[in-house]
Structures are given as C-alpha cells and as structure tokens.
Design a protein that fits this description.
Keywords: Heme, Iron, Metal-binding, Oxidoreductase, Peroxidase. GO terms for molecular function: heme binding; metal ion binding; peroxidase activity. The protein is mostly helical. About 40% of the residues lie in helices and about 5% in strands. The protein has eight helices and four strands; from the N terminus they run βαβαααββαααα. The radius of gyration is 20 Å and the shape is globular. About 5% of the residues have low confidence.
C-alpha cells in the first residue's frame, strides 16, 4: 500500500498519515470504504505469503498476479453467493460453464440508475465494536461515527477515526458486520442528501439530485420505457 503525496499544507499532527492508495480511487472517501480496501489489502498479503511459501522460486510479479487472482475470485464469490442471494431472496442458478458469447458487462440503465438503489441503504453513522462487541464511543461520547464529519478524512485524530492505526480497522469491521443497513426505499439519509463529501470539499451536494442528473446526462429513458 502506498501513500499519496499531498501538495501544499497538510497538518499531519491533526490529520495523521497522508491518504492511502488502494485499488479503488474512492478508498479514502469514508472510513467504511477505507476499511474494506484495507481488509482486501491484508487478504492479498495473506494469499501472497501462501503462494510464495508454495513456490519459493517464483519472482515477485508472478506471486503478485497469482495472489491477485485469488483476491478477485474471493470478492466475486462474496457477491455471487452471499450478497446476491441475500438481496434477491433466492440462490443463483447452478454454474454450468463459461459462455464466451455472453457479454460480461452490465447495462447502461443498471449502472447509471438501477444500481443506485444502494444509496438508500447507507446509514448516517458507522458503529465501532471491540473484540467483546462493546461499542467504542467517539471523542464526543456518541456510539456512531457520522459520515458527514468524516468525508475524505478517515484519519482525523480529533474524532478518533484513525483507521490506519491502533485497532480501529478491526473495530469498524466488527461494527459494520453487526449493524443493520437502512431500509431499501426512496429515502436517503441527510449525510448524503445535505452534506455529501462535507467540509473537506467545501461542498453540500445532494446524492439524490446527482443520481437524477446522472440519468439525464446519460440519456436514459423513463422507467416505463425501460421495463
């Protein structure tokens, strides 16, 4: 994992280490995304260690690529056999082999509009729990970290959210795994409706409005036409 070289003033005393560079450019957007990125980064290192132990004569690049294949497969397995069955309420059909004539991408309508339903599932805050499942409170005494105060600033020591040190990563993962998402409906929490990306970007954007505008910018037809 690399660090971003921040040009200009950066108060490391209050903000901690500079932002991390992982596979997703949105990694540092909020503590939850950063936690998942670091989780798979750690899993990659575990797999790479196993590959290297099995094939000690392999060069680093070959070890990296083999480990990468396992990590990608892990994520795909979670999506296909855990997330989708839970969301759809039924399992996927039995896999009967690779079909080279099937387009592997997703439709324009799904990517630009339909899959945005997940924004309604976002809670306004993220819990942290220790190994005994006890809540870790914020510096202000609250149980949850508000998204509106941590956009693009996951290492803010003033709010005790330094994901890259201590046990905060494990506590965030424990908290999220025990936290229920918001209801799948037409309502978005205020942290993404009124305070999207917050003070670090000096903005108060509305994710719901952005979703609507994305559909217009991409020239999507109306719902009745699509269905």
């Amino acid at each position: 994992m690399c660090r971003i070289h921040v040009v200009g003033d950066y108060d490391q005393e209050s903000h901690g280490a500079s932002p991390a560079v992982l596979g997703d450019p949105r990694t540092n957007q909020n503590p939850a995304l950063l936690s998942f990125g670091l989780l798979f980064f750690r899993w990659h290192n575990v797999v790479a260690s196993r590959v290297q132990a099995t094939y000690p004569n392999w060069p680093d690049e070959e070890v990296f690529q083999r480990a990468r294949r396992y990590v990608v497969a892990t994520l795909q397995n979670i999506i296909a056999y855990e997330y989708l069955p839970a969301f759809l309420g039924e399992g996927l059909p039995k896999y009967d082999g690779y079909k080279p004539d099937v387009h592997p991408g997703v439709s324009h309508v799904f990517q630009s509009a339909a899959f945005r339903f997940g924004h309604t599932l976002i809670p306004p805050g993220i819990y942290r729990r220790d190994g005994q499942c006890h809540f870790r409170e914020t510096a202000m005494g609250y149980r949850a970290l508000r998204l509106c105060s941590t956009w693009w600033d996951s290492n803010v020591r003033t709010t005790s959210v330094d994901v890259l040190t201590e046990n905060t990563l494990e506590e965030l993962l424990m908290g999220m795994s025990s936290q229920i998402s918001e209801r799948e409906d037409t309502i978005l929490c205020s942290d993404v409706r009124d305070k999207l990306f917050g003070p670090m970007e000096f903005s108060r954007r509305d994710l719901g409005a952005l979703n609507i505008m994305r559909g217009r910018d991409n020239g999507l037809p109306d719902y009745n036409t699509v269905r």
